Amino acid sequence: MRFIDKDLSPAHLLDALGTLAALLETEITKQKPSLAGELPIDNGSRVQGIIPPVCSAPIIVIRKRVSSVIPLNSYLDKEKITQQQYDIILNALGARKNIVLSGGTGSGKTTFCNALLLKLAQLSPHERIVIMEDTSELQCKIKNTVKLHTVKDKDGTDLVTLNHLLRMTMRLSPSRIIIGEVRGGEALDLLKSWNTGHPGGFATVHANSALATLARLEQLILEAAPYPMKELIGEAVNIIIFLQRHAVTGPKVEQIIEVKGIKNGKYVWNEI
151 — phi, psi (to 5°)? Predict the structure, then answer.
């Protein structure tokens, strides 16, 4: 971020938000003071707008979609992963391990997922990939790639959810199933799909550590099932890559753990 030598009046910001709302076929009012969506004129950049009374003056934030993918080798060159971690990741991709990328907001999970997809295109260019997202952020160079998106109506009500997309995906003959971000009960359907003939997928999850990712998946599954399904998690999740953003160096792989199942009600895992 940087400061610019320009002042935008609240009136101008309100006008801009009104224009953005019209582009997104919705509205932003005092009764509905938040605007969120994917810009239809900017190749998928995301906008978040807020107006009073939620805030003292109108706010617009635009998150631009990345124009290029950072290759996995670049993480190695910039010492954001070690050589051992790099080798582990390559082996996991080749062995069709199910990978969960975890970290906090802004930790670089989506960017790293794109790096994995780029490397996968080099290792397995003839596979069939199905990618599901709320917002288009993932990029895959494999020709046989299908991209699916959730759908909301103008009031923000879910019309097509990730659960719907996962059920559609089962009839699309995927080699690997990728979800941009798991944040609800779709975690259960995803792990079931990974565990029933579709190994080698990726997903991102918000969590504060690699081990906390397992507890986070339990919480998400409880939104769709009466039990946390530890056995399913222990069997379906093979590798957890935890990323963290540092003030100076930016996102970095902090930890990789391998999940080996459940024993006496506890996860069996080791750091690798």
Answer: -130, 135
Q: pLDDT grade, residue 44 (50/70/90)?
A: low
The domain spans of the chain are 10-63, 72-271
Q: Alpha-carbon distance 221 to 182, whole Å?
A: 10
DSSP designation for 219: H
Residue 153 clears pLDDT 70, i.e. is over it:
yes
Please state the three-class secondary structure of 147-181 as a single string. EEECEECCCCCEEECHHHHHHHHCCCCCCEEEECC
pTM above 0.90, yes or no: no
- At residue 20, φ and ψ (nearest 5 deg) are -65, -40
Residues 201, 191: contact at Cβ < 8 Å? no
Asked if CATH classification 3.40.50.300 holds for the domain at 72-271, the reply, yes or no, is: yes
Distance CA 200, CA 85 (A): 18
At position 39, the amino acid (one-letter code) is L
Helix (H) or strand (E) holding 220: helix 210-221
Closest by Cα among 106, 172, 183, 112 to 145: 172
Residue 191: CB partners within 8 Å, gap ≥ 6?
217, 221, 229, 232, 233, 236, 237
| Per-residue pLDDT reduced to its tens digit, 208-262 | 999 999 999 999 999 999 999 999 999 999 999 999 998 878 889 999 999 999 9
Q: Which residues of 168-206 are buried (b: 16+ CB within 10 A; e: fewer)?
A: ebbeeebbbbbbbbbbebbbbbbbebbeeebbbbbbbbb
Q: How far is CA 121 from CA 84, 115, 141, 204, in A?
A: 21, 10, 6, 19
